[in-house]
Write a structure and sequence with these properties.
Strand order of the largest sheet: 8-7-6-11
Structural class: alpha+beta
Radius of gyration: 21 Å
Number of strands: 14
Number of helices: 13
Strand content: 15-25%
Mean pLDDT: 93
Low-confidence stretches: 428-434
Largest sheet: 4 strands, mixed
Distance between the termini: 61 Å
Helix content: 40-55%
Order of helices and strands: EEEHHHHHHEEHEEEEEEHHHEEEHHH
Length: about 425
């Protein structure tokens, strides 16, 4: 008789939102291995119906408390494309600075507060306060400083208020940006190097698991694409963001209130590891040095290495933020009024990289500047089919370890994706009617 397994992890911990891990094996035959999303659907697309273009980003930033800024940036880009609103180079630089801050704060939160307890074999970050106080203090300093980027540039760390479609209602002072630049160099960078050293000591605890899959992220000719770029697949190359529906291809499965996605295979992965595999040649030398130290190589297909990729790109984000600040300070902060005079009314698409992967917003506006149709595709939803495929391959490989050890390993696998489950669930079929 073969092995029997009956694993049910109810409401996986150290992730945002509610998801259950379910595994069944009978006589050595795997019947079920998947992440069931049980979060109630949300209705943000429906909430946007009839809303003015000034309100779209304010509403969609409430999709997520961690990625509120990412939803704002993506919303701005969709609205500006739909209404023909051009933005200045200064606005783009300030937005890229905000994106770097949001990426660092989320990556640090995941790597050191949510994933590190797995490698140190404790149940949460709280035991580390006693055993690894310097790690916890460094993580808190980095998260605070990353949030301060949002406060300085956009008026608030969560749900920013001064960035709007077409620009900013209030610009940061040169003095405040200079102070931020100094803090990034003297506080953030040393803490990130320390964090990389900590992760290097834990490298032996990262599970050795490989399953070839498709990686999708933005890619740009100009930089490590976070704010803008084409959609890039490791299988088929680059296409413009206007093809985002073909490059996500949402579909419904019975065990999830969040849609799943697939393109060229049964699933694909987005997030830091996808960005690394598509854009490692766009990283600064210092970040590549950290990658080498941590054993992260191009073409990595181990999803557990997503956490390592987050640390690597955080180093790049810090250094690129300092370079952006140098450019802004050298040019001087120019008084600008947001460009909010539409030159057209139609459909626009925004695509950015938020910490958990590529995010899409699409809006259609009527001639009064009100939304008539909306679509948002969230990174975690794009990863769910890939997580299920990983589980199907991983469980038979570790079946001799016993249920408790298998359950723990599967929890680590899901956490490696840094899922934001509440963000991923939204209305399955939206029809706007007057």
């Amino acid at each position: 008789m073969g092995t029997n397994l009956d694993i049910k992890v109810h409401h996986l911990t150290r992730v945002e939102g509610h998801g259950d891990i379910v595994v069944n094996m009978r006589d050595g035959v795997l019947e079920k291995a998947r992440l069931e999303i049980v979060e109630a659907p949300r209705y943000f697309e429906a909430m946007l119906k009839g809303r003015n273009f000034h309100e779209a980003a304010i509403i969609t930033s409430r999709i997520c408390g961690i990625c509120s800024l990412g939803h704002q940036m993506t919303s701005f880009k969709a609205t500006e494309q739909a209404l023909g609103l051009e933005v200045s180079e200064q606005t783009v630089l300030l937005r890229k600075l905000l994106v770097h801050g949001a990426t660092i704060q989320s990556n640090v939160l995941h790597a050191l507060f949510l994933a590190a307890p797995d490698f140190l074999k404790v149940g949460s970050v709280f035991p580390l306060v006693g055993t690894h106080p310097e790690v916890v203090k460094a993580a808190l300093r980095m998260k605070r400083l990353a949030n301060d980027i949002g406060e300085v540039v956009s008026g608030r760390a969560v749900h920013p208020i001064s960035c709007v479609p077409g620009g900013f209602t209030q610009l940061p002072s040169a003095k405040s940006l200079a102070v931020l630049r100094e803090r990034l160099e003297k506080q953030m960078l040393p803490d990130l190097v320390f964090a990389a050293d900590v992760v290097a000591t834990l490298a032996g605890e990262i599970p050795d698991f490989t399953r070839e899959t498709e990686f999708i992220s933005l890619r740009s000719d100009d930089d490590y694409a976070l704010y803008d770029g084409d959609i890039c697949s490791t299988d088929t190359g680059r296409v413009p963001d206007s093809e985002y529906r073909r490059m996500s291809n949402e579909f419904i499965v019975p065990h999830s209130t969040s849609k799943h996605c697939k393109v060229n295979r049964s699933s694909y992965m987005v997030g830091a590891l996808a960005r690394w595999n598509n854009n490692h040649d766009r990283l600064c030398p210092e970040a590549l040095g950290v990658a080498a130290k941590l054993g992260l190589k191009p073409g990595c297909h181990n999803p557990f290495m997503n956490t390592v990729a987050q640390v690597v790109e955080s180093v790049h984000c810090c250094l690129d933020a300092m370079a952006i600040l140098d450019r802004l300070l050298a040019a001087g902060i120019r008084d600008e009024v947001p460009n909010q005079d539409p030159t057209r009314h139609g459909t626009g698409i925004g695509a950015t990289e938020v910490p958990r992967g590529i995010l899409y917003h699409e809006y259609t506006y009527d001639r009064q500047g009100r939304i008539t149709a909306a679509n948002c595709i969230i990174p975690t939803g794009q990863n769910l089919a890939n997580i299920d495929d990983d589980m199907v391959k991983l469980v038979p490989e570790v079946v001799d370890r016993g249920e408790a050890a298998i359950a723990h390993l599967l929890e680590m696998l899901v956490r490696a994706y840094d899922p934001c489950i509440s963000c991923s669930v939204h209305m399955l079929d939206v029809k706007f009617t007057r």
